[in-house]
From TrEMBL:
Signal peptide: none annotated. NCBIfam families: PRK06057.1, PRK07231.1. This is 3-oxoacyl-ACP reductase. It comes from Actinorhabdospora filicis. Belongs to the short-chain dehydrogenases/reductases (SDR) family.
Length: 249
């Protein structure tokens, strides 16, 4: 299927996990892909393996984010899809009882402020084109009391959800669709790192997933490609769940 033929897509957090799987899927669907990641080595390796242009950038920097979208339009003439996906899980125990202000701020900066910066940079460019699709990675934890004891992470993803809804409504008549992607637990380095710190957490989490397993990154990428494509032409301001039934249980 080549639903993104001729389209130009920017993917942040492209060097690993969901981002990398989506770069592959976008490529397979015919898109020209710009990979963005703060990890220069992994990003360059990913672009060499999968194809596409790599731009090393920290998505918490307004200047660098603006530079990514300016360079994309300069190189390829347009930007049709922005998958604002880079994110981190909190470094330590993220309970309200223990999380310090610095840790809280860092998670908001990488998970939420970055999405604001990417939307701020890409929307004026999409407005000029009269079309665009933005997919912001939130999480199932933004929609439910997940009892993850991850206060800064959950709050950051709730912000992504609310911002995406707001922007989706604001720009619906201008041809720009904005959706929040809400994955359930996905087998990626981010999740593995979290479970390595607390092995029992994996078992506790699995119990709550009706499908009884974690998602493969490719299953999330398939949903992102759908949202990016014209097949999702009437979908905006949505909370797009890809969670194995976790939030329905
Ligand atoms: P990952 O750790 O495999 O990949 C994240 C990528 O983002 C890495 O390549 C990292 O270098 C990059 N990154 C981190 N900070 C950055 C910055 N400041 N600037 C640019 N790049 C940066 O993680 P993943 O599991 O693929 O997660 C991707 C997104 O999906 C995140 O937003 C995460 O919160 C979200 N998510 C993940 C899960 C899950 O279970 N894995 C579930 C729901 C939502």
């Amino acid at each position: 299927m080549q639903r993104l033929s001729g389209r130009v897509a920017v993917v942040t957090g492209a060097a690993s996990g969901i981002g990398l799987a989506t770069v592959r899927r976008f490529r397979d669907e015919g898109a020209t892909v710009v990979l963005v990641d703060v990890d220069e080595k992994a990003g360059a390796k990913a672009a060499a393996e999968v194809g596409g242009r790599f731009i090393a950038a920290d998505v918490t920097s307004e200047e660098q984010v603006e530079g990514v979208f300016a360079a994309t339009v300069e190189a390829f003439g347009r930007v049709d899809v922005a998958f604002n996906n880079a994110g981190i899980s909190p470094p330590d125990d993220d309970s309200i009882l223990t999380t310090g202000l610095d840790a809280w701020k860092r998670v908001q900066e990488v998970n939420l402020t970055s999405v604001y910066l990417c939307c701020k940079a890409v929307i004026p460019r999409m407005l000029r084109q009269g079309k665009g699709s933005i997919i912001n990675t939130a999480s199932f934890v933004a929609r439910m009391g997940a009892a993850t004891s991850q206060i800064s992470y959950t709050a950051s993803k709730g912000g992504v959800l609310a911002m995406s809804r707001e922007l989706g409504v604001q720009f619906a008549r201008e041809g720009i669709r904005v959706n929040a992607l809400c994955p359930g637990p996905v087998d990626t380095p981010l999740l593995r790192e979290l479970f390595a710190k607390d092995p029992e957490r994996a078992a506790r989490r699995l119990v709550h997933i009706p499908m009884g397993r974690f998602a493969h990154a490719e299953e999330i990428a398939a949903a992102v490609a759908f949202l990016a494509s014209d097949d999702a032409g009437f979908i905006t301001a949505s909370e797009f769940l890809v969670d194995g039934g976790i939030s329905g249980a």
